[in-house]
Amino acid sequence: MIPGEFTYHRPSSVAEAVAILVSHGDEARPLSGGHSLIPMMKLRMAAPEHLVDLGGIADLKGISEDGGAITIRAMTTQHELIESDLLSEKLPIIRETSLLIADPQIRYLGTLGGNVANGDPGNDMPALMQCLDASYVLTGPDGNREVAARDFYEAAYFTALAPEEILTAVKIPTPPAGHGWAYEKLKRKVGDYATAAAAVMLSMTGGTVTSCSVALTNVADTPLYAAEAGDILNGSTLDETTVGKAVAAAEAITDPASDGRGPAEYRTKMAGIMMQRALARAAERASA
Amino acid sequence: MNDMTPTREQREAALEGMGCKRKRVEDVRFTQGKGQYVDDLKLPGMVFGDFVRSPYPHAKITKIDASEALKLPGVIAVLTAEDLKGVNLAWMPTLAGDVQMVLADGKVLYQNQEVAFVIAEDRYIADDAIQLVEVDYEELPVLTDPFKSMDTDAPVLRPDLEGKTEGAHGPRKHHNHIFNWEVGDKDETAKAFAEADVTINEMISYHRTHPSPLETCQCVASMDKVKGELTIWGTFQAPHVIRTVASLLSTIPEHKIHVIAPDIGGGFGNKVGAYPGYICSIVASIVTGVPVKWVEDRMENLSTTSFARDYHMTTEIAAKSDGTVTGLKVHVLADHGGFDACADPSKWPAGFFNIVTGSYDFPTAHLEVDGVYTNKAPGGVAYRCSFRVTEAAYCIERGMDILAQKLEMDPADLRIKNFIKPEQFPYQSALGWEYDSGDYHTAMQKAMDTIGYRELRAEQKAKQEAFKRGETREIMGIGVSFFTEIVGAGPSKNCDILGVAMFDSAEIRVHPTGSVISRMGTKSQGQGHETTWAQIIATEIGIPAADIMVEEGNTDTAPYGLGTYGSRSTPVAGAAIALAARKIRNKAQMIAAHMLEVSEYDLEWDVDGFQVKGNPEARKSMKEIAWAAYHAPPPNMEPGLEAVSYYDPPNMTYPFGAYFCVMDIDVDTGVATTRRFYALDDCGTRINPMIIEGQVHGGLTEAFAIAMGQEIRYDETGNVLGASFMDFFIPTAVETPHWETDHTVTPSPHHPIGAKGVGESPNVGGVPAFSNAVNDAFQFLGNTHIQMPHDAWRNWQAAKNLGAHS
Ligand SMILES: Cc1cc2nc3c(=O)[nH]c(=O)nc-3n(C[C@H](O)[C@H](O)[C@H](O)COP(=O)(O)OP(=O)(O)OC[C@H]3O[C@@H](n4cnc5c(N)ncnc54)[C@H](O)[C@@H]3O)c2cc1C
């Protein structure tokens, strides 16, 4: 439980941070809250020679809304997500999800940027970002590019992020007022990653679903955007048969590992149950 | 009397003696982060040791090459078994009569086994060096299933035992067999089964888990080569035994070894044994001449130093059709891992498992235990338990539920029908124990009335109907557990550790000003001895607890004792304390008589001093007497006021309790929610009700964890799974149920203050209550027995197997 040797850098601008990453290539890693990276280093599953602490970069903080999109800068902590009035009003599902991550001590330090950049299928924010159709702003030596959350994840710890890039912000289209939302997470205890979790966003008119998106956490080696399930539900009245079909479609794309949380079969079924419960709560919350 | 004279009640209250909810005095430092633990110790020149461990569960070691590691600046030495052989310490004896490798000698027997010990100037360098030690392994076939240990073609785990047909506890019947232990009357029991109206037969497993104290095992060894003295600071539940063992192994004379157990962050049985880390640190300090610190990390703790349980208990009960039990037959397959490092009194290979007849009047019983080797970590310690009592209680309490189900009787009624009756105490059990005291009927009735047992059963019935109608996906379980413990090891006639009888001791010194220092052979790891020991003394000699300092853990100053585990401190050391205090009071009486110029027979004790019978105005307080003891003792009397007592208990004590758990389970997710948990404990005389409550809360939380998910699991290839707090279930305050506690008081007739010990009762009684609740919930769907742990996925699996999923 003791990390290998490394050099610590604390740049004060994104450009400076990128420059350090460029000069050390694969040997350098950005450090945000450290609550995924440091445990990996202590287990010597990660052994970066250079740590680039993003904590000194003022530009990477803050939450703002502009032109139909909410931008959350990468170093915003999970605690700040919970405290944000803007998010509570416009994107309450972020608050609900954040409250289900780890425990308060971890949330004071853990950041949104680190959570989505990490690439661990156990993280809760990636599936949520897919559900919300967020995009990530990646800043590298050649400037910015944007990658949709739905296209970002390739395999466990493999993402579209290049070694010399920093994820600087997350952009989320502001959902319509009156939308329904829910994040349902099954876990063994406080501080545990999900056995399975589901994010649901929907809008309804006159009892009929007018838009719906569903994403799943920790039931494959990446977060899963359940496109087909959303499509099946869209236009329905959330009757039992349609929900059953959508749940089956979502379960079909899962491929969980068997671990201490349970065998694969159980975790797939729990993804379905979490989705069903999230749907029910989202529908309850949506103004018809 | 003028207004300033305190009343008798006020004087009594000022003592904060027995029965007082005195706040824990040790918490003043603990809650301020001012405790002094082993890892707080920093000595000049101190270096650090750390282990190279095996990634393989069973392999031959063909080469260990430390040359690269030794090149790393700051690395001092790398020890291997070859080095330890030079000092005859490559192997060490275990408490169970087996031998255990200190460092891998030619092979490894479990994953993470200690292979080499790296000594370096700091922990970081040590850990870097570990990565540089090259070890060549040749993998061997792995044995993880204890039921396959004695197959004819099972791999040989212990070539060192080849050809040994006798083990420490009799004949071995197979190369992976450790011992067979048999108690009871086989023929009588067979007869009872032949004549029975009803019998049950169920294999009940108590899975492998770990005591997991928050502070891991650690030590600092410091050899002073000039004086030839060795000092060891360590997380020791039994420091005096550690010193004796260290002396026997190292051949350093015992008086030149100083063992100091400072504050300890929880033990629960994990810190009773001797581990390779201790031995290697001692050798390393002898080799280097500087202090060597070894601190285990969490994964090392969970995967190597002492698991608990792993008992597979085939349980058979014979009964008449009216529910009267007539016989009990249990066969246990005990999985000990690679070495038998079980921490039991030496003559007891399966601890006190023969308490398995529990609270019931079994006319006859027969028990057999077979211990076997597997490719798992060694241990088998008593995790908050008096030597396999937890396993025994689980076995009989599940068994009684299964019998009740077969008889279609209520499980509480079945228990009451078979309880040992108050007039039967002292009671001789079929498996050889003499239960000192008990009143089970009163305790059970109080518990059932308080929790509203009959109403709960009615509610459960209604819920089951609703479930069958499809109106709810939740099922309800009521867990009943009525346990009897056997604690206070123990009488020298049946308990010793490596030949040292399991007595305990206390020394009390009253200073001239009437304050006190007292020392015991026990060692608190969180039990609150500094508080409760002072309370016993306060009541016995009338000096306020606040003026009494309690000190344990330093072998130079404390009297010899066998340490704290197995709920033995109060039954054994608690008695020694009371008796030492009474010696002081007796002497004080003579001094008081001298001071008051009366005969000592004219005096009577009154709260905090002696008064002349019939003339209470003529009195001397203990404070005055203490001064006189040093200032003007009676002629022909030795001055001073102190006493030592070594107590060899005449019998064990037998605490008991009635626990009830009400649980709701969501069959779609398997998530179980404990709605109520009621624990009635009878631990005899209650020294500090608040500490008892705290002990019960802690033990119940462990029981909850064990029953509902806590597990050290191995896959078939011998990988240890879940050896971190990510997977190993330690509940937080959020998951932990609310505890309702209650009590009855049946004092122990043979203990000087009637106390029985309580620390382990909640773990012992709690596990069956939880497990019975889960099993009871599924019973109406056709369930007989579901193995622990009852985590969500297993509950879901059970629901699925019973057809509760569409
Ligand atoms: C006990 C425990 C329980 C937890 N439970 C949960 C849980 O239930 N759900 C959950 O979602 N998370 C959980 N976490 C993880 C926690 O939320 C982490 O904080 C989060 O995953 C990573 O954020 P961080 O800011 O700490 O990132 P870091 O640990 O600093 O970094 C994580 C990775 O992302 C990279 N990185 C970080 N920031 C950037 C960036 N801006 N650009 C590019 N790369 C970057 C780092 O190089 C590293 O590889 C838990 C953590 C612990 C210790």
User: Given the structure, what is the number of helices of chain B?
Assistant: 19
Q: Name the average pLDDT of chain B.
A: 96
Which architecture of the largest domain in chain A would the CATH scheme give at its second level?
2-Layer Sandwich
CATH architecture classification of the largest domain in chain B = 2-Layer Sandwich
CATH topology of the largest domain in chain B: Aldehyde Oxidoreductase, domain 4
How many angstroms does the end-to-end distance of chain B come to? Answer: 82 Å
Shape call of chain A: globular
Helix- and strand-based class of chain A?
Answer: alpha+beta
Walkthrough of the structure:
The complex is a heterodimer of chains A (288) and B (806). With 288 residues, chain A is an alpha+beta fold. Chain A has three domains: 7-56, Uridine Diphospho-n-acetylenolpyruvylglucosamine Reductase, domain 2, CATH 3.30.43; 58-173, 2-Layer Sandwich (Uridine Diphospho-n-acetylenolpyruvylglucosamine Reductase, domain 3); 180-285, CO dehydrogenase flavoprotein, C-terminal domain (Enolase-like, domain 1, 2-Layer Sandwich), CATH 3.30.390. Chain A has twelve helices and 14 strands. In chain A, α10 runs antiparallel to α11 and α11 crosses α12 (264-285). The model of chain A has no long low-confidence stretch (mean pLDDT 97). With 806 residues, chain B is α+β, with helices and mostly antiparallel strands. Chain B folds into three domains: 10-37 and 504-647, Aldehyde oxidase/xanthine dehydrogenase, molybdopterin binding domain (Aldehyde Oxidoreductase, domain 4); 41-140 and 215-265 and 271-303, Aldehyde Oxidoreductase, domain 3, CATH 3.90.1170; 393-487 and 652-801, 2-Layer Sandwich (Aldehyde Oxidoreductase, domain 4). Chain B has 19 helices and 37 strands. Chain B has a seven-stranded mixed sheet, with helices on both faces. In chain B, strands 11, 12, 17, 18, 19 and 20 form a six-stranded mixed sheet that branches. Chain B has a four-stranded mixed sheet with strand order 23-33-34-37, sandwiched between helices. The termini of chain B are far apart. The model of chain B has no long low-confidence stretch (mean pLDDT 96). The interface between A and B is medium-sized, with 23 and 28 residues. Bound molecules: flavin-adenine dinucleotide. Flavin-adenine dinucleotide is lined by residues 29-37, 39, 54, 74, 101-102, 106, 110-111, 113-115, 117-118, 123-125, 161, 166-167, 191, 193 of chain A.
